[in-house]
Design goal:
Elements lengths: L1 E9 L2 E7 L4 E6 L6 H10 L15 E9 L3 H9 L7 E9 L4 E5 L2 E2 L2 H11 E4 L10 H9 L4 H48 L5 H13 L1 H17 L4 H12 L7 H17 L2 H9 L5 H21 L3 H67 L6 E8 L12 E8 L7 E2 H4 L2 H13 L10 E5 L7 H14 L4 E5 L3 H5 L3 E9 L4 E7 L2 H11 L5 H16 L1
Parallel strand pairs: 3-13, 3-14, 8-12, 12-13
Antiparallel strand pairs: 1-2, 1-4, 4-5, 5-6, 6-7, 9-10, 10-11, 14-15
Helix pairs in contact: 5-12, 6-11, 7-10, 8-9, 14-15, 17-18
């Protein structure tokens, strides 16, 4: 419940403080006086985007403060989530600077806009003067039915749709993977065959390089080994014989001097090492040239170096690639099994979705009949007794039109007069009829799952007059018995039926223009009603009194 609205330096308003009552409050005024200021101010309170042009010219900032009396579990939960202490009255403050930046507070605690937007969804039901155009949109018509359904049913359809889409995407990804894999399969096999023939292993490159180098320079290797063998063991004198002679010279004296003993020990170690060298040299001397083996190893080395160059990697990376390529081929070999499994999952998900969507279709058909019955009294009250309404719920056969909301197409069908055929609402309904139909929907609570405590109607009575205007006013007044209703209207009949009347005026001193919002007493209401009737003269006031008396009777 909106108890007070304080507006400062906002558009044409310098400062105004409104105290609002329960029931139905009407806002009237001359065209251009600024009746939209109320809607814009409430929009900002509940998180609408701000802009610099909302700040009154010459002011450094605009400020809107709304004081609300609320008793909703959802609002209590929102306050608790934000760590804000709940009080009897909730104060929402929004400040817009001249540069367009804005800040917001909730019970004195700074909050982001999304918190005000969440609060707005809980508190405010705003119906603009062009909102009836949404009624012509199939998605909005479907939403009207869904608002009266069990949310668990809607959530199940959405969840089944999501599961089906995920399964379909997995199937498509598998098919793409198979196509790409088949295109690469021959190449992969060629690369692996080459690596298998190379018998790739860690250190192979170095091994082959050494073997090829040794085979290429075998004559030089054997010549060097023979010279080394001669110097070491076969020559006169040989290195080993000279070493033995040196050891023989100092061994008897080693006990007399530690240095000599150390020299003997080291020469003995050298003798032990040199004793193993002739066998190694002999291995080289006994090597035989094998041109076939050498050619094979050279070819193997060239292929390995070519593979490393082609893939721009080292030996370890090439080994890793070999493992990856083998895994890809193995995956292709088992891909048919994966495809069967994914296809089965996709079909099961589709069937689950169809079952859930079918249940939703049945529920929508039942809700359509219920909604038509609920609307009948309100339509009769709004002088639409001759209008026949039917809501068709048809299933789409083409699955490309299916979605998370099911496979239904919802269409509001209208026959404006008895005997006329039913046609889609947007083809036959006038603007006034659409406005009254939306008002009837709101009156029976069909447009929202829950009923916010504050409803704002911005010129919903466009296109009506006479007795129908009285009916619109009575319906709005009846709605105000359950929640607070604010109405911007140009109809004197609607204004007459309000519990509170606020007049919006615009004045200019030649230099500045200012809009004011003034609550009216009985005399003021009569004078404003006379103006709305088109005549502010005493005769107009007399006609206004006639309306006032009729208000009491109704």
């Amino acid at each position: 419940m909106l108890r007070e609205l304080h507006i400062r330096q906002f558009v044409l308003v310098e400062e105004v403080r409104l105290e609002l009552t329960d029931g139905m409050t009407v806002f009237t005024g001359e065209t251009g006086a600024g009746k939209s200021i109320l809607v814009d101010a409430l929009g900002l309170v509940f998180g609408a985007r701000a802009s610099a042009d909302l700040v009154r010219h010459g002011a450094d900032r605009a400020e809107i403060v709304a004081t609300l009396e609320v008793a909703q579990a959802g609002i209590s939960a929102l306050l608790a989530e934000q760590g804000i202490e709940e009080e009897e009255l909730m104060i929402v403050r929004r400040v817009i600077n001249a540069d367009g930046r804005s800040r917001a507070w909730l019970n004195g605690v700074a909050v982001p806009l999304k918190v005000l937007q969440q609060l707005g969804r809980l508190c405010l039901d705003l119906h603009g003067q062009h909102a009836h155009q949404r009624l012509m949109q199939p998605a909005w018509q479907r939403g009207l039915l869904d608002a009266g359904l069990d949310t668990a049913l809607l959530q199940r359809v959405a969840a089944c749709w999501q599961t089906w889409q995920q399964a379909s995407q997995a199937m498509q990804a598998w098919q793409q993977h198979i196509r790409q894999g088949r295109e690469q399969e021959q190449w992969l096999r060629q690369q692996l065959e080459t690596l298998d023939m190379l018998d790739l292993a860690p250190g192979l490159l170095q091994q082959l390089e050494q073997e090829v180098a040794a085979g290429t320079h075998l004559a030089r290797l054997q010549q060097g080994a023979a010279q080394a063998m001669h110097a070491l063991d076969e020559g006169e004198p040989s290195a080993r014989s000279l070493l033995a002679e040196a050891m023989h010279a100092i061994t008897p004296l080693a006990g007399l001097q530690p240095s000599l003993q150390q020299a003997v020990d080291m020469m003995q170690q050298a003798e032990d090492v040199l004793a193993e060298v002739p066998a190694l040299l002999q291995d080289v001397l006994e090597m035989e040239a094998d041109a076939t083996h050498l050619s094979a190893q050279e070819q193997r080395l060239n292929q390995l170096q070519a593979m490393l160059h082609r893939h721009g990697c080292d030996e370890a990376t090439l080994l890793h690639l070999q493992q990856q390529w083998q895994q890809q081929l193995d995956a292709l070999d088992t891909a048919e099994w994966d495809g069967e499994r994914l296809q089965q999952q996709c079909e099961q998900a589709r069937q689950a979705y169809q079952q859930a969507a079918s249940a939703l279709h049945q529920a929508r058909c039942e809700q359509a009949a219920t909604l038509v019955d609920q609307l009948r009294p309100a339509l009769d009250q709004l002088a639409l007794a001759g209008m026949q309404l039917r809501i068709d719920v048809t299933s789409e056969a083409d699955d490309t039109n299916w979605g998370q909301h099911g496979f239904d197409h919802v269409s509001f069908m209208l026959s404006s007069n008895p005997g006329e055929p039913f046609r889609p609402l947007q083809q036959v309904a006038s603007g006034g009829e659409l406005s009254r139909l939306v008002l009837a929907l709101k009156a029976c609570g069909a447009t929202t799952g829950e009923t916010p405590p504050l409803a704002v109607f911005d010129e919903v009575d466009v296109g009506v007059g006479g007795e129908t205007a009285w009916s619109v006013g009575e319906l709005l007044h009846a709605m105000a018995e359950e929640r607070q209703v604010l109405v911007i209207s140009h109809l004197p009949q609607v204004a007459t039926l309000a519990d509170q009347h606020i007049c919006i005026t615009k004045e200019s001193n030649g230099q500045r223009t200012t809009s004011s919002l003034l609550p009216l007493d009985r005399a003021g209401r009569l004078q404003e009603l006379a103006r709305m009737l088109g005549d502010g003269s005493p005769q107009g006031v007399k006609q206004a009194r006639v309306l006032w008396k009729r208000r009491k009777r109704r």
